[in-house]
From TrEMBL:
Transmembrane segments: none annotated. ATP binds at G86, Q87, T88, G89, A90, G91, K92, T93. It comes from Hevea brasiliensis. The chain holds residues 1 to 364 of 482 of the full protein. Belongs to the TRAFAC class myosin-kinesin ATPase superfamily. Kinesin family. Residues 3-332 form the Kinesin motor domain. This is Kinesin-like protein.
Amino acid sequence: MANITVFCRFRPLSSKEKRDNGDSVCIRSMDSETFVFKDEKEEEFAFSFDKVFYEESLQADVYEFLALPIVRGAVNAVNGTIITYGQTGAGKTYSMEGPSILELDDLKKGLLPRVVDGLFECIKSADKSDKYRIKLSMVEIYMEKVRDLLDLTKDNILIKESKVQGILLSGVTEICISDPADALQSLSSGIANRAVGETQMNMASSRSHCIYIFTVQSELSDKRVKTGKLILVDLAGSEKVEKTGAEGKVLEEAKTINKSLSVLGNVINALTCGPTTKASHIPYRDSKLTRILQDALGGNSRTALLCCCSPSPLNAAETLSTLRFGARAKHIKTSPFVNRAQDKLAKKHEDVAPTKDELCERIL
Ligand code: ADP
Ligand code: MG
């Protein structure tokens, strides 16, 4: 069993926060894992995470601590998931993509381009007798529908479950990527297809959850195929509806987002309510998001959560809610293992549950 690793990242104060409230911040760093947070009533709370990234942190460090072990795992057929969580404007997309997915400045590149580079580098240094193939799919969950960002005609992808392969998106577009530049072009066109709205928080904020899926297949010398799945999730903003001043369609979007994020919270509560009171029912099926993240939260995945926060006292209530979410998630345990090599021709056996021996090589 492995705990979900939980990281916290504070972005620099925005120019608006500085204009409205000067340089004051609501956190005091203790060390690289612990800080004290002060709420609106000056009450103090200490929080500890696997690592805390403060405003001067480098994108490369976030990648190295949070993503690199998961990328290496995926190339070795261990599934992994990386999730960014936080209110709109807290730095989720900056952490995931960088200022833009095609950012050229190496200092500013986000997790996604670094993951792409990392996958190809790991493959280069892997056993030369194995043949690798990387496939990419991209979907967003918008108004509780799963839309294929690489083919917008597929606007209601169904979620299925295979006993061997876990959660699957039925008929989703999968493109083979041949090198990092090719991957970035596809990611860029997929991102351009996202549903984006404008809220009174005065920025283009994504009103959908965006999910990137890399499937790394390695064909072994005996022709069997091993697969590792790496999922990155840029969640929609976790702020409360009232604060955004939303109306009409935007209000409906915000309510749907709040609902799926509250189901995510319910799933985490059910998974972490302790051995004596352990909930027998985990409500994964209550939202598309938790259904897709079922393996990431309670199954075969090595999972990292990045809680993105503003350091400004003006956002203290939302930040506290994000920190509490992260603190809760630290207790979730998943069971990642090396996926069994599959005979290429044995497709008809896909839905037969593996035996205990076949689910071997537990690595953690
Ligand atoms: P979110 O995706 O959570 O809504 P963004 O990632 O779009 O938020 O970030 C909001 C703004 O803050 C953007 O202008 C972004 O460039 C800036 N920003 C976020 N995180 C950082 C950071 N670590 N360093 C510098 N700027 C950042
Ligand atoms: Mg965003």
